[in-house]
Amino acid sequence: MASIVEMRDIVKRFEDVTANDHVNFELREGEIHALLGENGAGKTTLMRILYGLYRADSGEIRVAGDLASIHSPKDAIQRGIGMVTQHFALVPPLTVTENVVLGYTDGFVLQRAAMEERVGAAAKKFGMEIDPTAVVRHLSVGEKQRVEILKALYRDAKVLILDEPTAVLIPQEVDALFETLEKLKEGGLSVIFISHKLDEVMTISDRVTVLRDGSNIDTVLTSETTPPQLATMMVGRETFGVTRQKETEKGEAALTIRDLCADDDQGLPALKHVNLTIRCGEILGIAGVGGNGQKELAETLSGIRKPTSGEILVDDEDISGATPAECTRAGVGRIPEDRHAGVVGELTVAENLALEHLHEFIHRSTLDRQAIQENAERLIEAFQIKAKPTDKVRTLSGGNMQKVLLARVLAREPGILLAPQPTRGLDVGATEYVRTQLLKQRERGAGVLLISEDLDEILALSDRIAVIYEGVIVGELAAEEADLERLGLMMSGAVKERV
Amino acid sequence: MAKREAKYIVEKTQTPPVWARTAIPLLALIGTFIITSGLILWSNANPFEAYYYFLFAPFSSRVSTLEVLVKGTPLILCGIAVTFAFSAGYYNIGAEGQLYAGAIAAAWLGVALTGLPTILHLTIMLLGGFLFGVAWALIPALLKVKLAVDEVVTTLLLNSVMLYIVSALLNGPWRDPESGWPQSPEIAPSAMLPKLVPRSRLHFGFILAILFVLLLWFLRSRTGFGLKMRAVGMSKPAARFAGVNIERTVLISALVSGGIAGIAGVVEVAGIQFHLIDALSPGYGYTGIIIATLGGLHPIGVAVAALFFGLIDTGAQTVSRALGVPVYLGEITQATMLLVTLGMLLLQNYRIRRA
């Protein structure tokens, strides 16, 4: 088969992050090619470059053999490339037909009936059930997605890019989408399917390209690979020096989670009857491929997201549905998954360090600025934060920002520490520092919940490891029994086990 | 892809130099002057002469110097009111309506209560104006906090509703029985704000405005509530994560904002007009938004911006009398000033360096 799209040596940097580091990608005619990788691996960036939403810093793109300079989606559409993003670009009050022909009409006067007929015919031709006269606002998410696909096909797309198309769908809609894609493939369409879900990739794709940390790891035939192999390719990273050394005394349960359920932002179930116990003096690692409910788990335990049912017990007290302030009071120390959303960048280091326990820094109803300053100086020293108390937090590096968040929480010696993705995006030095701090908390007798997509981190630090897959805890292992391959199998949903 | 070597590169910087920040007001003034000169020339006047009248002529006499402060008084109060809400990330566009709500309270209490000592009468009126402003701000604030209804739309639309209420009052029950004009009866002498300087229009409201500037400065930088308010305004997720009650913080800020705008209404009725009229405010509530933005949501900055606008307002009348150009030039200058300053605030985050 001839290749229809070729991307060579694509490099794209954002400020100091390299999102694509000399990435090569090839799409053949009439194949469904999965682009697999964790969140932040650079999949979407690569495709946004192909669709003209970003411009590569260097590298070349060939479409059907010809060198193509794609500066805007218009250029991409002209070359037969269509893209359906996670956030639909539809105008809700308009009809399906109006949305499909928008920006693609000829003539000054719109021939409504003729347009509807043409759109209806196109839908039928591509085997999609859509009423061309329906108002988009009234459609389900799956139907809206079909309109997006039809929009691309109506513009004569030969290549269709789907960015995490199943993220917003319920299982039945996923099946319908896959049927549509199979039919389109038979009709000669080439599809790029961005995903981080292994089972979907195994089901729908012909070939898989795996990206990790902005580089492409490999391209393989789906029929010749297995989910564990793909999982290893996705998450394998260099190992760091910090590991669990001495055994600690495991105490009683610090935090017990019973039957916890929660929905994601789209209102679809993200956590399904999660049961977990974290004991004092241990690190419980939650392993899993990104996007399987980790974010929702961390947010629910932090009081940011309301659970739909279940219990979160701290000292026999149920804190499910409590506010973040109540969680803090119950002794749950929390660092946020997205550290930029955890600090107020425009405020100073000292102010951020005081924010969580502000009532302690108020003296006769005004802020005790000296106490805030002293608190900051003490924590900056104790946690080796490279900043002055008066620096604005936004000027800090990622590692120092994370230290501010850690300092704020750990200075309180919480009984429980929630650490979702605590080293994501940090350099080696900062990563080692954070890991050492987590181990210190464990030795102090705190129960630590470590949620990480980095398997090496999980293996190096955890006493026990639970694996999450599609919102379900599919297995729990003692650290001694776990290895990369076994975890990989569980993370792909292929094996379930319980200790 | 073809490579083009650029000689200079424009790049974003997180740390603009200190001189850039301090030079902005001056550069903005120069930029505004250049842009508005064209319009002034078009009205057959000399731009330099016009700007002399805008910026310096008001200081040539005692009366017009004091007039700058008179004009600045409601502007300071509205600027502070808007700043209060904006600091918490609540975009209150309704200061204009809230000002009239306060003015209604003043016109009512100023007539209904008699025989009180001045200090007591005025205190009741100020309190009443504050509460009326709060009440008028309560509807959009609750809609925002409980139902996430966009406050920009609701506060803006309620301004028109308030203007109709005022109009209904003035053409109905409150129409002046003697003159028949659509204005409320004159308030009692004990309800009038005392003059600061005899034989001028400068009244005690100016002191009140300055007090509010200091109060806002104190609240913002010296209290726990102020820090929470700023944290909520700058990053809601981070504030929520740190355990700040976002809804409560936004609600309080929105209501206090409405209250302060209400005080502005009281001050205009009790210090200048002594009646409620439907032209009480030439858009002070809206200008307050510009002033709050120009002042960088900092109380001192807001006070300076408000007095500067008071200066241009005063100057615009002089310039129009002296050179025969439309009074609107003052408003155009203010608006240009805002756009130029905003542009400069944005540009200070970039620097040009040699490739």
Description:
The complex is a heterodimer of chains A (about 500) and B (about 350). Chain A has three domains: about 220 residues, Rossmann fold (3-Layer(aba) Sandwich); about 180 residues, Rossmann fold, CATH 3.40.50; about 70 residues, no CATH class. With about 500 residues, chain A is α/β, with parallel strands linked by helices. Helix content of chain A is about 30%, strand content about 25%. Chain B has about 350 residues and is mainly alpha-helical. Chain B has a domain of about 210 residues. Chain B is about 70% helix and about 5% strand. In chain B, strands 1-2 form a two-stranded antiparallel sheet. Chain B starts with 7 loop residues before the first strand and ends with a strand. The relative contact order of chain B is 0.21. At the A-B interface, strand 4, helix 10, helix 11 and strand 18 of A face helix 7, helix 8 and helix 9 of B.
In short:
With 499 residues, chain A is α/β, with parallel strands linked by helices. Helices cover 32% and strands 26% of the residues of chain A. The model of chain A has no long low-confidence stretch (mean pLDDT 87).
Task: Break the fold down into its secondary structure elements and pairings.
The complex is a heterodimer of chains A (499) and B (355).
Chain A (H helix, E strand, L loop, with lengths): L2 E12 L2 E12 L3 E5 L6 H8 L7 E6 L2 E3 L4 H6 L2 E4 L11 H6 L10 H14 L15 H14 L4 E5 L7 H16 L3 E6 L2 H7 L2 E6 L2 E7 L5 H9 L17 E11 L5 E11 L3 E5 L6 H9 L6 E6 L2 E2 L5 H6 L2 E3 L14 H7 L6 E2 L2 E2 L1 H14 L15 H13 L5 E5 L7 H17 L2 E5 L3 H7 L2 E6 L2 E7 L5 H8 L8
Chain B lengths: L7 E5 L5 H25 L4 H9 L6 H26 L7 H18 L5 H30 L3 H21 L33 H18 L1 H11 L1 H6 L4 H28 L10 H11 L4 H25 L4 H20 L2 E5 L1
Helix pairs in contact in B: 1-2, 1-13, 2-12, 3-7, 3-10, 3-11, 3-12, 4-5, 4-6, 4-10, 4-11, 5-6, 5-10, 7-8, 7-12, 8-10, 11-12, 11-13, 12-13
Summarize this structure as a short list of keywords or feature phrases.
heterodimer, A: 499 residues, alpha/beta, Rossmann fold, 3 domains, 6-stranded mixed beta sheet, 16 helices, B: 355 residues, mainly alpha, two-stranded antiparallel sheet, 13 helices, globular
